[in-house]
Specification:
- The protein has 417 residues and is mostly helical.
- The longest helix has 29 residues.
- The protein has a single domain, classed as Up-down Bundle (Growth Hormone, Chain: A), CATH 1.20.1250.20.
- The protein is built from 17 helices and no strands.
Amino acid sequence: MTTSPTEIRATLDEAPARPSAGVAPAAGQDPSARSALVRWLSVLTLGLGVFAIVTSELLPVGLLPPIAKDVGVSNGVAGLTVTLYGAVAALTAVPLTVLFGRIDRRWLITGLMSVVVAGNIVTAIAPNYTVLIAARILMGFAHGVFWSTVPGTTVRLVPERHTVKATAIVLSGISIASVLGVPLGTFLGQQTHWQVAFYAMAGLGALVMLGALTLLPMLPSQGRADVRALPALLRHRPLVTALLVTTLTMIGHYLAFTFVAPYLEDETGLDSGLISVLLLVFGIAGVLGNFVAGATVARSLRKSLLGAVGAMAAALLVFAALKDVSYVAYPVLIVWGLAYAALPVCLQTWVMQSAKGQTDSASSLYITSFNGSIALGSLLGGLVVDHIGLASVTWIAGGFAVAALIAAAVGKQRSDA
């Protein structure tokens, strides 16, 4: 049996709302109205933080060719800027979340965003590839802890009746960053210089850091991820299947998407100036996909999930088969963007349904799976590009998506039975 939407909401609503301490109401303003305003500004700050940290993770994707040229490495080696970031985030999410679990959430989030700011600045000024990679690894350490901390913090910022809405706002930063942040960063980097895009993300991170300091209340730890719950969760078939589908879809996506810029330029034959436009098309489609998924998942998670995975598989295979037909890139990227943006909503909902009351621990496993798959996908993509050929990435990525579709169809049918 699946968990009902009511039960999911009850799980999200477990943590009590906390008052927005430390912010005085403006003169002549109703204190309760000011409190509500501060609460929602705090939620928006966390959502902006999600957007900033996910965009920072994926920003090299659209700028690989100029980055590789400037630091003197191949596109495949430059792809390690995504691979190592994701690998570090995946490997350290659980242990570092436990280690820093007793720190007040306002100070923890502020500190994590300061690492993101510093990492983006060092990335922009890196004189060589070694310094560039070191900066990306540093940011990876902050990423996993941030993701483990933000969902639980969000539900403490608003009254219980608003926790689902607040959580949806914050988590929408994932899809918007993936499908819009990267294209916008690519456009900025191509119109100026790739370093400018990273300076922009440092500025955005500084804004989030300031917002966390001034808007978030003091939020002492109320509970931490319990590593002792992990073995039991890993024996729960629906959750394991959800994690498997997450792994397969994200490997497939990032295997191809990490190298989409050189693929469009070298294989499809498009002018480099059109690549940023195409990625913006991908992003706009993704924003629409995020809204569509939010509306359809509540009605039928299974149909939404299978539709998103199936559409991504079809888009990748068509792209592989018709790469020489340049205009095909436009509809393919639209479908791909729609499908990918829907996936985090579908997958995270499935994980929440399968959490057996251990939402923090299940979330840490999801974070590990998601970020580990980013690392594996970009690593495999780099190996394919350097040893087999750029033309093969979409075929292999499509194969992973097909495998994910089969696993999702079989696994979701069993869990619904």
